[in-house]
Amino acid sequence: MAEEKDPIICYCIGVRKSTLVQSIKEGNTTVEALRGATRAGSGCRGCISDLEKLIADHKE
Ligand code: FES
Questions:
Q1: pLDDT tens string 5-22
Q2: Class of the CATH-defined domain 2-58
Q3: What angle is formed at CA 14 by the lines to CA 9 and CA 15, rounded to 5 degrees?
Q4: Ligand 1: which atom is nearest the Cα of residue 11?
Q5: What is the pTM of this model?
Q6: Which of 10, 17, 32 should be mutated for ligand 1, with most atoms under 8 A from CB?
Q7: Measured distance CA(48)–CA(43) in Å, rounded
């Protein structure tokens, strides 16, 4: 399923993994930059640790 391959990471804003990975590759390699670009993490902040993990896994 496409949904499983591209899960929503930030449920508050509804931001999917592919959007975040793309943004990280464009140079948004801090939680703050990623939040500025995608709004992920601007709600409950419960996804912050997931954002940090994605950054660690995908920054170049
Ligand atoms: S799940 Fe991302 S801010 Fe709440």
A1: 899 999 999 999 999 999
A2: mainly alpha
A3: 55
A4: 1
A5: 0.91
A6: 10
A7: 10
